[in-house]
Amino acid sequence: MFPSIKESMRVKLNMEGSVNCRAFKCTGEGEGKPYEGTRSMNIEVTEGGPLPFAFDIISHCFAYGQKMFIKHPKDIPDFFKQSFPEGYTWEREVTFEDGGVLAINQDTSLQNDCFICNIKVIGTNFPPNGPVMQKKTCGWEPSAEVVIPRDGGLMLRNSMTLKLIGGGHLACLFKTTFRSKTRKDVKLPEFHFQDIRLERKGNDNGKTFELFEASVARYSPLPPKHR
After folding, report:
1. pTM of model > 0.85
2. What dotted CATH number matches 9-218?
3. How far apart are CA 65 and CA 59, in angstroms?
4. How far apart (Å, rounded) are the C-alpha atoms in residues 122 and 104?
5. 114-124 and 88-96 strand pairing
6. 3, 32, 36, 116: which is deepest, by most CB within 10 A?
């Protein structure tokens, strides 16, 4: 275990931003088990609600950015937990197949047994008649994220898929960079994967949301033919 991270931890989050020039703010509170790879969170829209766009396009900010909750096997160094108590920052660009784009940055720190996350989101170019602005999404499919050590931090790449009401999908690409704020040396992992399942409970009412995430880091289970 890591000295500053207990078996059960709380998390508080503040988000502000805009999508297609429509401003909003959200707060979130939750708890999870960093060494088991599970957590839950309740989110409330405090300004700009009900959201005029599908909440799913920002739900990953409440989950995929909180990497300190990922379960890591002993043979994969945990970059995220090593970064505390100082924490880490990340930047993400999400490009949707219909032309919509999200730009996100987050600062994550630790206060006692609670992670504090501050997020800024800017979304542009979402088609007015598309599934995002028409709120026709119903959650994310499970995914496997690629983790690459780069310049003292981590570069992550992920091809994500949103489920659509009535059938079908909306695909997008995630590009994320993580940087530790700690002054001590952080041992970087080798190339590996992170399996992630994010679930939203209930319908998108534009005001309150409940999320659950399970995530685990792993190497490829396929053995190489030549070593």
Report:
1. yes
2. 2.40.155.10
3. 10
4. 7
5. unpaired
6. 32
